[in-house]
Design brief:
With about 575 residues, the protein is α/β, with parallel strands linked by helices. It has two domains: about 325 residues, HUPs (Rossmann fold, 3-Layer(aba) Sandwich), CATH 3.40.50; about 180 residues, Isoleucyl-tRNA Synthetase, Domain 1 (Orthogonal Bundle). The chain has 21 helices and 20 strands. It has a six-stranded parallel beta sheet with strand order 3-2-1-16-17-9, sandwiched between helices. Strands 4, 5, 6, 7, 8 and 10 form a six-stranded antiparallel beta sheet that branches. It has a three-stranded antiparallel beta sheet with strand order 11-13-12. Strand 4 and strand 5 form a beta hairpin. Helix 18 runs antiparallel to helix 20. The protein is elongated, with a radius of gyration of 28 Å.
């Protein structure tokens, strides 16, 4: 760990960007919600790495302790560690198959994490923030947490009345036991002040307002952070007290520090000073169902320890299928590996990010996925197919630009356009396209760093659509026909026709080159195939080369007939109708 971080300092001049997913609880199979969290983090991390002067580190992993794991293992007659080893593999398979480029896959059974958890507990105990006492309240086995009565409600289910959590809608039962408690209430006012001073700490804004309002209107009870060993066996033992096990959330949240090599730096006035080259603080990606743990409990743990708070907590909503939250009982759970095997990894990644709206629940349907994939095929990939055919020469168009042959292009468009009425449209469209391509990185960067992926992709689509439109209305193939029957054309006209052909091809090829560089964080494989086809140098696929003319050394072999289509057409496999 120490060597790794010394390398950061030597190789990188800027603070590493550290992004985390939740660590996923291994009591169920991975679903599209898990993939969504991973993709939000992966896209953001890859985007950071597009800039060769920046460094990013992504953490994901699994939460492997708790009563649900213990119960499931008992039912199967196996040791809990055997069970978590098996199920954790499913989450690794998901991340690996969907090309999630994590830097560490952490497990709460990892030795360094167990050691960190003991260390952190001892720090809290030494500071006087942990004490033993009896506890009673509404406990949810599924969520492994106690809820205040105000956060529960009574409903009727299967003919009988039960009480559920208002947040998770899982059943709660009244329970009394002896636990260790953390003094949450001692830091409530401090957290309120921090949130008021840092309104972007929680995004989106309505989640921030929800947490701030709760903290300002409801006194926090002290938090039970252990369970009796007689009931919970599969968890980390409380230091110096074998009769108690550490509460799964207290353990789980600390994983974000474990990956940084904590404890690191040095103490000054009871505060940990984080080294400049260290990963911390993190940007956390979480689902809305675990907001309280990450936006109340976790910041307070850190305040108590004297550790810098996370940089930001991004709270995303859920994916709905046919208007309902996915659940086994409804039979509408989407298997991300299964759909990616049919539609392709990158089209699935693209669809989820193209429709990623962290503020509201997102709508999933295979019909929408098919439409998204068809657009990639028909607009993005087809643009390359059109200029990459035998009629044109991408390399020649790049050479024309390199030699300055487009300097008088506006005049040529006016002089030689075969349809005079569309000359103003061509001139305006080519100007707009160049401006938008040159501003594409800045425009997408502004949106992606704010996790506004849906609008980032819309901006990306804009230049693809403009290039297709330009190619369609300029009709460069008509000049090729004219050259083939070149009787009556003088040498200057022939050369001017070639300039026009290559100008339109060049603008389209630059659109493909730059848009492919910028879509790498979302579609790393398809973009690679297209950049490979254009013969773009591997070292020129970053943000230093996203202006028109920034790379004029590509195109060799791009028009060869040996190339396969970058994306194959699929037969629709769903018949459901959706409204436009």
């Amino acid at each position: 760990m120490t060597l790794r971080y010394s390398l950061f300092k030597r190789l990188k001049s800027t603070k590493p960007f550290y992004v985390t997913t939740p660590i996923f609880y291994v009591n169920a199979s991975p679903h599209i919600g898990h993939l969504y969290s991973m993709l939000i983090a992966d896209t953001r991390s890859r985007w950071e790495k597009l800039n060769p002067n920046k460094f990013s580190y992504m953490l994901t992993g699994t939460d492997e302790h708790g009563l649900k794991i213990q119960t499931a293992a008992e039912k199967q007659g196996i040791d809990p560690k055997v069970l978590v080893d098996r199920v954790t593999g499913n989450f690794k398979e998901l991340s690996n198959k969907l090309d999630i480029n994590y830097d560490r896959f952490i497990r709460t059974t990892d030795k360094d994490h167990v050691n960190l958890t003991h260390y952190f507990w001892n720090v809290m105990e030494e500071k006087g923030f942990i004490e033993k006492g009896s506890h009673s309240g509404w406990y949810c086995v599924s969520d492994e947490t106690f809820y205040p009565e105000a956060n529960t409600e009574e409903i009727e289910k299967d003919g009988k009345k039960i009480r559920i959590s208002s947040e998770s809608e899982n059943e709660v039962v009244y329970q009394e036991e002896t636990n260790y408690f953390f003094k949450l209430s001692a830091f409530q006012d401090q957290l309120v002040q921090y949130l008021q001073n840092n309104p972007d700490f929680i995004k989106p804004q309505h989640r921030y307002k929800f947490i701030l309002n709760e903290l300002m209107t409801t006194k926090l009870p002290d938090l039970s952070i252990s369970r009796p060993s007689s009931r919970l066996k599969w968890s980390i033992e409380v230091p110096n007290d074998p009769s108690q096990k550490i509460y799964v959330w207290f353990d789980a949240l600390l994983n974000y520090l474990t990956a940084t090599g904590f404890p690191n730096g040095f103490l000054q006035d009871s505060k940990y000073i984080t080294p400049e080259d260290n990963l911390w603080p993190a940007t956390h990606i979480i689902g809305k169902d675990i907001i309280r743990f990450h936006c109340i409990y976790w910041p307070i743990f850190l305040l108590a320890a004297g550790i810098d708070l996370p940089k930001q907590v991004i709270v995303h909503s859920h994916w709905l299928c046919e208007g309902f939250k996915m659940s086994k009982s409804l039979g509408n759970v989407v298997d991300p590996i299964e759909i990616s095997e049919y539609y392709g990894i990158d089209p699935v990644r693209f669809f989820l990010m193209e429709n990623s709206n962290i503020e509201d629940d997102c709508k999933f349907s295979e019909t929408l996925l098919e439409r998204s994939r068809d657009s990639l095929l028909g607009k993005y990939c087809n643009l390359l197919t059109r200029i990459g055919g035998g009629k044109f020469d991408i390399r020649e168009s790049v050479e024309y630009c390199k030699k300055g042959k487009f300097d008088d292009i506006s005049q040529l468009i006016q002089n030689y356009s075969l349809k005079k009425d569309i000359v103003p449209s061509i001139l305006q469209l080519s100007t707009d396209l160049q401006d938008d391509i040159n501003n594409l990185y800045t425009q997408m960067d502004e949106k992606i760093i704010n996790f506004d992926y849906i609008r980032a992709v819309q901006t990306w689509w804009q230049v693809i659509n403009q290039a297709n439109q330009l190619f369609q209305i300029s009709e460069p193939w008509l000049y090729i026909r004219a050259l083939k029957s070149s009787s009556g054309l003088d040498d200057k006209t022939i050369e001017d026709y070639k300039k026009l052909i290559n100008y339109y091809v060049f603008l389209c090829s630059e659109t493909i080159r730059i848009s492919s560089i910028l879509i790498q964080p979302i579609m790393p494989n398809l973009s690679k195939d297209i950049l490979d086809r254009l013969n773009i140098d591997i070292n020129m696929r970053n943000s230093d080369y996203v202006k028109i003319g920034a790379d004029l050394n590509y195109g060799d072999g791009a028009n060869s007939n040996k190339h396969k289509l970058p994306l194959q057409k699929l037969q629709p496999r769903v018949s459901d109708k959706i409204d436009d």
